[in-house]
Amino acid sequence: MKIMPGKCFKEIITVVLLVMTCVILADNAGNVELSSLGKNANNWKTKISSCIGVKDGLMQIIAYAGCPMIFSPKINLDAKTNRIILFKMKLESGIDGNAFIHFITDQDKKWNSRKRIQFRAVGTGKAEAYKIDMSKNPHWKGTVIQIRLMPYNLGRNCRFENAGEKYFEIGPGFTGMKPFVWTLDKYGIEFQANSAIIPVPYSDWRKAAFPQKTAKRNLKAQVVFLGDSITQGWTLNPRYENGSKFWKKDFVPMNVQNFALAGDETQNLIWQLTEGKAIDGMKPKLFVVMIGVNNILRGTSVRDTVAGIKAVLKVLRKTHPDAKILLLGLLPNKVAWDKKGMIASKTAQVNNIIKDDADNKHIFYFDSSKAFMDKNGKFDAKLFRDGLHPNEKGYGKWTEILVPEIHILL
């Protein structure tokens, strides 16, 4: 299934910005097409979202939460003669919220609420033209060196709790990337406008780290670990609080491989296993999988996170039908900024759902949380270094209950 510009999907937001050339153009009235700030998609940065391709000049973007941001390349825009920014934006009917254009100048290079123009973005299902007078902000002066557009902001906490509006497009006029094509049909995964299931290639430090991992992979590994920083913590430098000494002593003798990378979400792992070809040519007896907490931390709903985890399982069952999968429940957590315990609550909800994916023939569910509870059955902060990642003692406790389970399945 291909994502085609203009094709209507349920619960999809489409944003269209008029992008035409990489040369900054302004008419005599000081109007500047937002498009002229750069047309190569690779030169535009995204936050709380990822660009996954360019189709017919439209940048295809997946948003992780309700306040995606798109950053222009570095520019040199004379604020005095370039006052008006023009663009077009298309939002699904029913969306009615605040949008912003932020900017920084050569005199003030920090992003803050003082240097922005707020405007109303109303979804009509049609491309609407916007004409934003930036000179209404007294800080619009000197040389503007970058612009940031927030097409919409759905709520103060920037969360999609019950919505699926995660795919949108900006353009036309972009170049520099291949179009995104839905290829997961062959794994039995139907397209959804859900950031947790759409494979996203790495664009940060992991872009270099991932090839290094695959280059050193053990093709004869019998056990393959997949996950995020918590799982990667088994193999990090021993000078940090982690499980490296337990990995060497208790896991390496099993003939293992650890592909986990810090920051990974379900969509990253799906990319690893498909386009990233991480496990191609490998024939492990067992996959140990724990993924999804970063989705929750970054605002993905429980429903969408579960869909991402289920998609990972489908890929593994399709590519390695003879291997067993040990699906680990997300670890309990208590991060300092989560005053109301929402993250902990959502991870528990995820676990309560994914445990039913175990058929005890191919997929086995294991709840590791008991290793991280005190004698009263409550979260034991002494086993964590930050409320999320186990410390060395925590990895030790985890090893004690996990290793026997792996031996049973092997």
Explain this structure to me?
The chain is an alpha/beta fold. Helix content is 20%, strand content 22%. The protein is built from eight helices and 17 strands. The chain has helices at 206-215, 229-232, 244-251, 266-273, 293-297, 302-319, 342-354, 392-409; strands spanning 31-33, 45-47, 49-55, 58-63, 69-71, 77-78, 84-90, 96-105, 116-122, 127-133, 143-150, 167-170, 223-227, 256-258, 286-290, 324-328, 363-366. Strands 2, 5, 6, 8, 9 and 11 form a six-stranded antiparallel beta sheet that branches. The protein has a five-stranded parallel beta sheet with strand order 14-13-15-16-17, with helices on both faces. Helix 3 (244-251) packs parallel to helix 8, helix 4 (266-273) runs parallel beside helix 6 and helix 6 packs parallel to helix 7 (342-354).
Mean residue pLDDT: 86
| Count of discrete alpha- or pi-helical segments spanning 4 or more residues | 8
Stretches where pLDDT falls below 50 for ≥5 residues?
A: 1-23, 156-164
Strand content: 15-25%
Structural class: alpha/beta
Order of helices and strands: EEEEEEEEEEEEHEHHEHEHHEHEH
State the assembly state of the protein chains: single chain
Largest sheet: 6 strands, antiparallel
Principal-axes geometry comes out as elongated
Helix content: 10-25%
Radius of gyration: 23 Å
Count of distinct strands? 17
> What is the CA–CA distance across the termini?
38 Å
Topology (SSEs and partners):
Blueprint: E1 31-33, E2 45-47, E3 49-55, E4 58-63, E5 69-71, E6 77-78, E7 84-90, E8 96-105, E9 116-122, E10 127-133, E11 143-150, E12 167-170, H1 206-215, E13 223-227, H2 229-232, H3 244-251, E14 256-258, H4 266-273, E15 286-290, H5 293-297, H6 302-319, E16 324-328, H7 342-354, E17 363-366, H8 392-409
Parallel strand pairs: 1-7, 13-14, 13-15, 15-16, 16-17
Antiparallel strand pairs: 2-5, 3-4, 4-12, 5-11, 6-11, 7-10, 8-9, 8-11
Helix pairs in contact: 3-8, 4-6, 6-7
